[in-house]
């Protein structure tokens, strides 16, 4: 899986872990041409602070 520095706008569409040191990871979805959206509360994520990262895209589930 890839991870980003502070440029989430350049990432491919898909689901990503949003990792913040000292907090539980959250899952976000990146849609083509859009910001990241957190599944937990619907907030937008367009950047990552120093030490934070987006990891993914996560592989699609298989049967």
Structure description:
This protein has 63 residues and is mostly beta strands. The protein has one domain (2-56). Helices cover 0% and strands 35% of the residues. It has no helices and 6 strands. A 6-stranded antiparallel sheet has the order 1-6-2-3-4-5, with no helix packed on it.
Q: In whole angstroms, how far apart are the ends?
A: 21 Å
Estimated radius of gyration = 11 Å
- Secondary-structure element string: EEEEEE
Tertiary shape: globular
What order do the strands of the largest sheet run in, or round the barrel if closed?
Answer: 1-6-2-3-4-5
Number of strands: 6
Largest sheet: 6 strands, antiparallel
Mean pLDDT: 79
Low-confidence parts, pLDDT < 50 over ≥5 residues?
Answer: none
| Number of separate domains | 1
Based on secondary structure, the structural category is mainly beta
Helix content: under 10%
Give the number of helices.
0
Percent strand equals 25-35%
Question: Brief description of this entry?
Answer:
The protein has strands at 2-3, 14-19, 26-30, 36-38, 44-45, 53-56. With 63 residues, it is an all-beta fold.
